[in-house]
Amino acid sequence: MERDCKIVQDLLPNYLEKTTSKETNQYIEEHIKQCPKCSKICNAMKEELNISCSLDTEKEVNYMKKFNGKMKRLELWKKIAMVMISILIILLGMVLYRYSIITKIYKLHSKISEITNVYYQAEYEDKVIEFWRKDSIIKQVNKLKNKEDTMTFWRDISTEEGYLISNTSKIYAETPKEVPSQNLPWGFAGDWDTFEKRIKIAINPTITITIKQYDNKDCYYLRLNGSDFFNNTEEIYEKDTGLLLFESGHTQYSSWGEDINCKVKYEYKINVVLDKDVERPNLSEYELRDN
Ligand SMILES: [Zn+2]
Fold first, then answer.
1. What is the Å distance from ligand 1's center to 178 Cα?
2. What's the CA-to-centroid distance between 7 and ligand 1, angstroms?
3. Per-residue pLDDT, 55
4. What's the 35 CA to ligand 1 centre distance in angstroms?
5. How far is CA 195 from CA 11, 105, 191, in A?
6. Distance of CA 56 from the midpoint of ligand 1 (Å)
7. How far apart are CA 289 and CA 87, in angstroms?
8. What's the mean pLDDT when you consider all of the chain?
9. Residue range 111-288 in CATH 2.50.20.10
10. Is pTM beyond 0.85 here?
11. d(C-alpha 236, C-alpha 80), whole Å
12. What are the pLDDT digits (tens) for 172-231?
């Protein structure tokens, strides 16, 4: 018996750690049943092991809980930071993209505005404007669609000589302010001459800029939303030339004096204007009106 006790006591630590075989377990358990001494030792060892073990486990569990909590929070912050950085990068990318389009339109249009042989037609809802420029001479003819009235503006930029002629009432005025001096219709792009103005448009969330087809041409499509003054203003610029092909929603002061909510379609011809298209008007049948 003494010998069995020794063996069992030697095996007890392993038994309690459950690393012993089925047969050994059986042998130990049978012995403990009959031997109060070994049973006592086993219980004592069990208790000691349990307490110490559970203490360790509790500490460990607490530590792991804390650690996991920290890790989870850290992961969360990492995720939030990543999302915010991603949003920032996307926003920055969008602003840069929009800025590059705005700059491109401005530069293309500036370049094409330097051309001194150009014709364009602007079709409004109620009138058609035709414009010719050859070198220093500008001619513009405004025709109202539902009336026979026609207005002709003629100006020589180099000499400042200019006339406004009403064809129906047979009168004319000298160098009136209505005589156009600019080359091509600009739309809003005409105001985009500085970095500040361009970046202001680029970061404006109420302006959408997309690439769309218009008249079978790739175009930049600008839309201003949410502003009372420019409500639903649209502008379409040709991608390759920067030419304004369409605009709507601007409130414009027409040459007839009324405010019109315009919707204008533009068509251009470059280098086709002849001298006879911009001939100095024959005013012999017209009466001079005082300005
Ligand atoms: Zn024993």
1. 122
2. 9
3. 54
4. 5
5. 86, 13, 11
6. 30
7. 63
8. 85
9. yes
10. no
11. 39
12. 888 766 656 567 888 888 889 999 999 999 999 888 999 999 999 999 999 887 655 555
